[in-house]
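Researcher: Re-running this chain for the archive, since the previous output was lost when a drive failed. Same request as before.
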Amino acid sequence: SQQVVLQGVLAAYFEENDIDAIIFPTIPLPARFVADIVDAADPTQPLIDLDGTPVTTLAYSRNVNIASSANLPGLNLPVGLTSDGLPIGIEIDGLTGDDRALLAIGLALETVLGQVPAPILP
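Model: Regenerated structure tokens:
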């Protein structure tokens, strides 16, 4: 299956590069306000106004699809807030069976980053 192929590709990448996890932004751009939804005709794919261009929320959150598609463990951590008070996060993805290592990495990052303030609600 495609899932097994993707797992193999990622396992090879981790091994070749001697890494335990991949860390990247949860989403490639800052969070948006609910008021930025411009079309919710299809509740499974609402459109968000992204600098004048409507994009689906699924496209907006494409970074988290890697672990989900490969059925790999992943965790998200809040790491800060935008100037509008909306959350910024990172995703940490590991390999099958590496859940404990992933949680240890998350704990280490939380320890270094300290308490992240709660988002500011409008």
